[in-house]
Amino acid sequence: MGSGANVCPLSMGAPRRRRDDPRMCGIAGFFAKTEAAEARLGDCVADMLEQLAGRGPDSAGVAVYRDPLPAGATKLSLLDPSGVVRDWSRFGDVLDDRGDQAVVSVAADPVHARVAALARDPGILVLSTGTTIETIKRAGPPDGLIADAGLRAMRGTHAIGHTRMATESRVSTEHSHPFSTGADLCLVHNGSLSNHNRLRRELRRHGVAFQTDNDSEVAAGYLTWRLEQGDDLQTALHGALRALDGFFTFAVGTRDGFAVLRDPIACKPAVLAETSDWVAMASEHRALAVLPGAGDADVWEPEPARVYAWSREVVAA
Amino acid sequence: MRLATEAPAATTVDLATASVRELNRALHAAADGARYLVVHPAGRHAIAAGLNAAIDVEVEGSTGYYCAGMNQHATVRVRGTCGVGVAENMMSGRVEIAHNAGQSAAATAHGGLLVVGGDAAARCAISLKGADVVVAGSVGHASAFMAQSGRLVVCGDAGHGLGDSIYEARLYVAGTVASLGADCVEKELRAEHLDELADLLVTAGIDAAPAGFRRFGSARELYHFRPHTAPRTAHG
Fold first, then answer.
1. Contact list, B80 vs chain A (CB under 8 Å)
2. pLDDT tens across B157-184, in order?
3. Which phi and psi (to 5°) does residue B199 adopt?
4. Using the beta-carbon criterion (under 8 Å), do A22 and B99 form an inter-chain contact?
5. What's the pLDDT at B6?
6. The model's pTM
7. Residues in chain A closer than 8 A to B65 (CB atoms)
8. How big, in percent rounded to 5, are the helix, strand and coil portions of chain A?
9. Which among A288, A303, A304 is the nearest to B43, CB-wise?
10. How far is A134 from chain B, CA to nearest CA, in Å?
11. Beta carbons of A40 and A64 less than 8 angstroms apart
């Protein structure tokens, strides 16, 4: 892990990298309840990821829900896993170009959009599809992703983020979370699953496609399958408690909101905080402490095996 | 004639500019009677861990993991929430959390008192070894798991598996218990228990009526040695 020399933080809130930082994936979710919080979404999520850098130095990823496309169009978040800079205009109208990855829009439904993109070049990865979700991943600590993506300038309704310490598969950009196997659906995971190989085979038989050997992608695939079978999110997540063997705290992003679920033993950490402006979840409180108004937030630890979910319809009611 | 001396002014440490290591070093060097105020804790870990003198530390805000871990002799008050393992392995002294505590509060603590003003989460007082824990709210599942000695008082509810494999610790719960763990049973609340409970509540500064609690403890059917402090009956 290198020498004991610490790099001084350049700004308050940037964590010192210490040898004794708890080093197990960090996850975060942020859901804006007000216009003001939506305007600060990118800044808030960036601050959260910086606090979680100590938990996961290997890679970082974020899914931001913003700028919804009209019906009939799909956003694709695309990545070249070999790091080659591509001409993304061949894949659709470019909304954001970051060299080895981009967000494009196409006039097609998510399933056809994905198939067409992979047909155009089987070597690229489709990080996500949907009407609002945009997924960005970057190897290395989160400050690289934050700068590359211009995350701090983004506004949006909600976001899920992850800082990774590799356990079950290689360190690389494509193994970062969030994983998405369905439209506007993504998942970040702290923990590790032990039955992911068997479950992946079963899910492939049900028609779910996987792009990596990562255990967390299997959890995302399971949820996608259940939602396609007609389960609502709550039912699908309760099914995950039975189907998945292992440790997990999940944060799940959907088109309209996000959900948090811990396994029944609940050894992987999770903290929730809520104010009148936002709801947020993180692996450690220090990632919530940086949010505006955090000092007055309700802060609590979610119970095991209980689905906590927030969505725009409920909040708007 | 000298009047009683006033308490010394508190030394303020601002964690926005100082590191937790610098804070803890100062606290470890402080003499009995010293007072400290810690501001901008911002969820940092191991705040006020390893204290070993009768000092007073007030934390203005919320902490991360292992706050006041291994506390000995000191009084630590957190005016916020805390994360996993508050007062873990405490030997003596007093730790107060104003709001909610994370998992494994007072884990394996040998002495002293932890007071939680809100809820504690799962595994509260796990492997308790003689400390006292008083929670104004509720506790999560597997609380008092393998608790060997000491007392846990819960003014709210307890989650599943309360007191699983418990030894001689005594548990008092005012609300509902989702389920009892292996070898944990409800026990008779006698006069000496009401006195003990009243004493704990007063010491913790929590207003609750002892008569509204139920007592739980070991059925002593899971192990095969004779605990020297207890009579050899199935339900003592």
1. 295, 299
2. 999 999 999 999 999 999 999 999 999 9
3. -60, -45
4. no
5. 66
6. 0.89
7. 22, 284
8. 30, 30, 40
9. A288
10. 30
11. no
In this structure, how many other beta carbons lie within 10 angstroms of the beta carbon of residue B156?
Answer: 17
Question: Cβ distance B47 to B20 under 8 Å?
Answer: yes
**pLDDT tens string B1-56:** 545 566 778 999 999 999 999 999 999 999 999 999 999 999 999 999 999 999 99
Give the model's confidence band at B149: pLDDT under 50 very low, under 70 low, under 90 confident, else very high: very high
B39 chain-A contacts, CB cut-off 8 A:
none
Q: Cα–Cα distances in Å, from B188 out to B80, B138, B185, B230, B231?
A: 36, 22, 10, 15, 15
Q: Least CB-CB distance to A300: which of B16, B45, B119? A: B119
pLDDT at position B2: 45
Alpha helices in B35-142 (DSSP H): none
User: Which of the residues A25, A44, A186, A267 is marked catalytic?
Assistant: A25
CA–CA separation, B103 vs B208, rounded Å? 24
Instruction: State pLDDT tens for residues A223-281.
Output: 999 999 999 999 999 999 999 999 999 999 999 999 999 999 999 999 999 999 999 99
Q: In which element (H, E) is residue B113 found? A: strand B113-116
What backbone phi and psi angles, to 5 degrees, belong to A314?
-65, -45
Q: Specify whether the CB–CB gap between A88 and A94 falls below 8 A.
A: yes
Burial class (CB in 10 A: 0-12, 13-18, 19+), B28: middle
Tell me the two tokens of residue A251.
């944060």
At A23-32, the pLDDT tens digits run 588 999 999 9
With a cut of 80, say whether residue B154 has pLDDT above it.
Answer: yes
Residues of chain A with pLDDT under 70: 1-23, 166-171, 313-317
Q: What is the ipTM of this complex?
A: 0.87
Token pair in block for residue A257 = 């909101």
Answer yes or no: do A299 and B100 touch at CB < 8 A.
yes
- CB of A307 closer than 8 Å to CB of A237: yes
**Residue among A31, A14, A39, A62 nearest A290 (CA):** A14
Q: How far is A294 from chain B (nearest CA, A)?
A: 9
Q: Nearest CA of chain A to the CA of B6: how many Å?
A: 31
**β-strand partners of B37:** B12, B58
Structure tokens at A277: 């402006």
Instruction: Give the separation between CA B25 and CA A183, rounded to whole angstroms.
Output: 52
Tokens read off for A311: 């969505």
User: Is A230 in a helix, a strand, or coil?
Assistant: coil
Residue-level pLDDT at B233 = 53
Q: Which two tokens stand for residue A293?
A: 């108004």
Active-site residue, A44 included: no
| Under 8 Å between Cβ of A85 and A100 | yes
What pLDDT score does B38 carry?
Answer: 98
Task: Please give the C-alpha separations between residue B86 and each of A232, B62, B69, B108, B221, in angstroms, as whole numbers.
Answer: 38, 12, 6, 11, 31
- Under 8 Å between Cβ of A252 and A161: no
Cis peptide leading into A178, omega within 30 of 0? yes
| B121 → closest Cβ in A13, A289, A301 | A301
Amino acid in the structure at residue B105:
A
